[in-house]
Design a protein that fits this description.
heterodimer; A: two-stranded antiparallel ribbon; 8 strands; B: 21% helix
C-alpha cells in the first residue's frame, strides 16, 4: 500500500501541508472559499516538533489498526488497498479511536472523527506531497 | 474442523473474521440468543437519543455470515457445555464442536429492590431494551437512572435529548466512580447538571413504586420521585451460567489463560464473559469493553484455528462525551497505596482537567477532560511500559503530541516494534 512518509531531516515546519490538506478537504477546494466555510475544513496532517526534530505527521494507516479494533460503530475500516478509511456517515463521535490511536492522528469535529484518507478522491494522490516545498513528504 | 461460537457481538464477530483469515473451509456455527442481525450494543444509547437510525446499529453488513460462510443460529440460547465436546441448546438439541468459543458477554445487573419487575424498568443492553424504552417515551415525562456509570449516564443523556426530564440517582459520592476520580467526574457532573439533568449522589432507591407499571421511586431517605421509566445502570455481570457444570473455572467471569483458552482444552472464552489479566495492574479481572472484546475475539479465533498468539492483557479505559465535553480515562485513575506520582493540570474556566498517574516513572493511568486528542499517545506509553522521566515536564503541556515521544521511540526500539514506528524517517 502507498503511504505518505515524512523525512524529518528535511521538514522545516512551514505547515504548507496542513493548509493544502484542509483546502483539499473543503467543499470549494480553494483556499479563498475554504476559509469562509462552516464548519471550517480540518487538516488531517499535523506539523509537530520536539527539540530540533520537526515532523509532519498524520494517520499511519497501521497494518494492525487499533482505531478499527476500537471502533464500536463500524465506521473505521480497511479499504481494499490496505489504507485505513473512515465512513463518516456511521461515526457517532464516541472517541474510542482517539483513545487508542498511538499517533494522536485523529481529530474531532462536532461528533465526527476526522483522519487522513490519503486523498482517496484525488486522482493525482495525496495533496500534501505536492504541497511540500522541501520535498520532505513522499508517497511510496 | 468444526468451530462453534456462542455469541455474535464484538468478540464473536471478530473471532469469525480471525478464523476465516486462517481457515477458509472449516465449518463455523455462530449461535445467538437474540433474533437480530449483528449490531453494536455500545451505540444503542446513540440510537435511543435519536442520533442514528436503527439501520446504522449494524456495524457489519447484513451478508456478514454468508460472506464468511457461517451457519448462523439465532433466537436460541446455549444452556450448557456438555462433556464430550458438545453443547446443549434451549430447544433441547445438541451440537458437537472441535473448538468452542464462549462469547456470551454480560447482562445488566438488575438490582434486587422491590418493584424491579414492573413495566417500565429497563436495562440498556440490547436492541429490545432500546425499542421498549422508545415505545414508552410517549407516556413518559420523567425518567430515573439508577446508577451513575457509563450505561446509566449514556441512557440519561439519550433520554434528555428526547426531551424527558431526567434524574440520575448514584449511591457513590460522584458519577462515573469506576472510570474517573472525583475531580474529573466533577467536570462532567457540573456540565450535565447545567444542561438540565439532575444528579442525586450518596443515595440509592429502596423501592420502585406503581401497580403493574412504574409510577415512581422511593429513595433511602424516603424522598419520593414520580417517574414513568427507570433505567438500571448498576454495571454488568458475565453470562457464565452455561459452563457451571462443565468443569470450567470461573470467578466473576470465565477464567482464561494467555491463549484465551479456559482450563478445558479446546474451549475458549473472549469478550465481556472472559476474565483476563489487566495489562496495567496485573490483576485477574474483566474489563468489559468493546476494544478489549474485539482483540480477544481475534486472538481466540486465531488460536482456535491453530495459531499460537499470546494475549498481553486487557485495559480498563473508556471514552465518553456528554454535551460537547469529551472525557477519556485509561488505566489507574485513582491510585491506592504507595509509590504513585500524580501530575495534574486544571483550568476551571476552560473546563479542562488532565491527570497523569505514574509509578516508577512509567505512566499507569490518566484522565483527560476536554483535551483528549492525544489520549492514544499516552496510552501507547502505558501499554509499552516506557520510562517517561525524560519527558515528564512535557506530558501536561498544551502542545504535547506524538512528536514529543520521538526521542523515546528512538531510544526504546524494542518496545516500539510495530512496523509503523520503524517506518519513521528520523
Amino acid at each position: 500500500m502507498k503511504k505518505v512518509y515524512c523525512n524529518v531531516t528535511k521538514c522545516l515546519g512551514c505547515r504548507s501541508c496542513e493548509i493544502a490538506c484542509a483546502v483539499e478537504h473543503s467543499k470549494g477546494k480553494t483556499l479563498f472559499t475554504a476559509i469562509s466555510e462552516t464548519p471550517l475544513p480540518v487538516h488531517r496532517r499535523k506539523v509537530q516538533a520536539v527539540e530540533e526534530i520537526i515532523i509532519s505527521d498524520a494517520c499511519h494507516h497501521c497494518e494492525d489498526a487499533p482505531c478499527i479494533t476500537a471502533c464500536m460503530s463500524g465506521s473505521m475500516f480497511k479499504a481494499e488497498d490496505g489504507s485505513t478509511q473512515h465512513n463518516e456517515d456511521k461515526c457517532v463521535g464516541c472517541w474510542m479511536c482517539v483513545m487508542v490511536c498511538p499517533f494522536g492522528a485523529i481529530s474531532r469535529r462536532k461528533n465526527l472523527a476526522i483522519k487522513c484518507d490519503l486523498c482517496k478522491d484525488r486522482t493525482e494522490g495525496p495533496v500534501c506531497v505536492v504541497s511540500c516545498p522541501t520535498k520532505s513528504l513522499t508517497v511510496k | 474442523m468444526e468451530y462453534v461460537i456462542v455469541g455474535s457481538s464484538a468478540a464473536g464477530v471478530s473471532a469469525v473474521e480471525a478464523i476465516r483469515s486462517v481457515d477458509k473451509s472449516g465449518k463455523i456455527t455462530v449461535i445467538s440468543d437474540e433474533n437480530y442481525s449483528i449490531y453494536s450494543r455500545c451505540v444503542l444509547s446513540y440510537y435511543l437519543a435519536g442520533m442514528m437510525t436503527e439501520e446504522k446499529l449494524k456495524y457489519r453488513g447484513e451478508d456478514f455470515f454468508k460472506k464468511h460462510n457461517v451457519d448462523s443460529i439465532v433466537g436460541k440460547k446455549v444452556e450448557a457445555v456438555l462433556p464430550g465436546k458438545k453443547i446443549k441448546l434451549s430447544d433441547g438439541k445438541t451440537l458437537s464442536f472441535d473448538k468452542l468459543l464462549i462469547a456470551t458477554g454480560s447482562r445488566s445487573k438488575m438490582e434486587n429492590i422491590p418493584g424491579v419487575e414492573k413495566d417500565g424498568v429497563f436495562g440498556l443492553r440490547n436492541i429490545n431494551d432500546a425499542r421498549k424504552i422508545e415505545e414508552r417515551l410517549g407516556k413518559t415525562k420523567t425518567a430515573v437512572m439508577l446508577g451513575g456509570g457509563l450505561i446509566g449516564l449514556r441512557a440519561a443523556y439519550a433520554l434528555h435529548k428526547r426531551g424527558l426530564k431526567v434524574i440520575v440517582v448514584v449511591k457513590s459520592k460522584h458519577i462515573l466512580s469506576q472510570m474517573l476520580d472525583e475531580e474529573g467526574a466533577g467536570f462532567i457532573q457540573r456540565r450535565i447538571e447545567n444542561k438540565g439533568i439532575k444528579v442525586i449522589t450518596g443515595l440509592s432507591a429502596k423501592e420502585i413504586t406503581g401497580d403493574k407499571e412504574v409510577s415512581g421511586i422511593i429513595l433511602e431517605n424516603e424522598e419520593k420521585i414520580d417517574c414513568q421509566i427507570v433505567v438500571i445502570g448498576k454495571g454488568v455481570q458475565a453470562n457464565i451460567e452455561l459452563v457451571k457444570d462443565a468443569g470450567i473455572k470461573t470467578e466473576w467471569g470465565i477464567i482464561v489463560n494467555e491463549s484465551l483458552q479456559t482450563n478445558v482444552t479446546d474451549v475458549f472464552a473472549a469478550g465481556d464473559v472472559a476474565q483476563t489479566k489487566d495489562l496495567v495492574t496485573g490483576e485477574s479481572t474483566i474489563n468489559a469493553l468493546w476494544p478489549n472484546a474485539v482483540i480477544q475475539g481475534k486472538i481466540a479465533g486465531l488460536n482456535m484455528a491453530g495459531k499460537n498468539i499470546k494475549y498481553d492483557g486487557s485495559l480498563g479505559m473508556n471514552s465518553v462525551e456528554f454535551f460537547e465535553l469529551p472525557t477519556i480515562s485509561y488505566g489507574i485513575t485513582k491510585p491506592k497505596g504507595e509509590g504513585y506520582e500524580i501530575l495534574v493540570k486544571k483550568n476551571d474556566a476552560q473546563e479542562i482537567y488532565k491527570k497523569i498517574v505514574l509509578k516508577n516513572n512509567k505512566i499507569v493511568g490518566f484522565v483527560l477532560v476536554n483535551d483528549v486528542d492525544n489520549a492514544g499517545v499516552y496510552g501507547s506509553l502505558i501499554r509499552k511500559k516506557i520510562d517517561v522521566s525524560s519527558i515528564k515536564e512535557e506530558l501536561l503541556n498544551n502542545n504535547f503530541n506524538f512528536a514529543k515521544i520521538l526521542p523515546l521511540v528512538k531510544k526504546y526500539k524494542e518496545e516500539f516494534a510495530e512496523k509503523e514506528y520503524k517506518e519513521l524517517v528520523m
